[in-house]
Amino acid sequence: MTDTDSLRTIRDFFRLAISRFNAAGLVYGHGTTNALDEAAFIVLEGLHLPIDQLEPFLDANLLPAERQRLADLIEARVATRKPASYLLNRAYVGGAPFYVDERVIVPRSFIGELLRSDVVVGGDGALIDDPARVGRALDLCTGSGCLALLMAGAFPHAFVDAVDLSPAALEVARRNVDDYHLADRVELLQGDLFAPLAGRQYDLIITNPPYVAESVMADLPPEFAVEPAMALDGGGDGFDIVRRILAGAGAHLAPGGGLLCEIGEDREILEAEYPDLPFLWLDTSESAGEVFYLPAEALRPKAPPRIAAGKPPRRRPATAKGATSAATSAARRPRRR
Questions:
Q1: What is this structure's pTM?
Q2: What's the Rg (C-alpha) of the chain?
Q3: Those residues with Cβ within 8 angstroms of residue 63's Cβ, 6 or more apart along the chain or in another chain
Q4: Which range of residues forms the domain containing residue 182?
Q5: Which of 24, 59, 88 is the last residue of a domain?
Q6: Do residues 296 and 258 touch, judged by C-beta distance below 8 A?
């Protein structure tokens, strides 16, 4: 139990949190990467202060109820090992706040940054030079719905479908959609990937699917093990669901559309398995080669070649297809979803 009588200011609790987190050997990766940033988030969000403005408030004296709240949050972070976002029911993606709880993973996708960058939207040479040309968009594996809502902001004329297999996750997404007053533009659909879409086509599909390898799932630290396993587990080498998305996306992309997908740190597996796909890897301030873009034309099913009447097809020597073993890939960290 923390002696709150001896702690008076935000600076006192900020220092206490860093010391407690370091001593406990906590694991980060849910929006912060170290004890200092985690402490700042808990203290500022816990007091309903701007999360990017610690300095002006450091020497502010706290009321007894505020001191107790911070002491309880710090102790809960150490005792339960739950990510701070679960304790506070708040996560930030692309600078925007969203409600979260244990029904969804804590959102932390690199796609949030990309949707705000001129590399993807509206810049000179951007993938989508004119945001107005996106009329329909899709977010697969939507979870909390944060990326779907960020798409609605990036493409002001778009109607966005958001799909998730988990009914519980969609309850959280519904709360966020309602908080942003976007129910008229964002439709939530429950089902397995493209199954509930009934032939709909989109100008842009984004997805941050489960991509944690089976070997990594078996050894998750407590902060990640508390998240819904179905939102992390990508099977075998981590790419089971990514492969299904690549197989189905072409049928749901309109001409000129594209797929934006986050896959983690083992891009070599996909590049070896799909040598004919022109993956465009997009970097962010904290990642390199973890998100790819593919144009619709690259994903459309290829028609079989036509054979002239009366001429048997020429037989080519059989060639073995390369297969990349999960054992040869680097262990995938579940730090981003």
A1: 0.86
A2: 23
A3: none
A4: 109-300
A5: 88
A6: yes
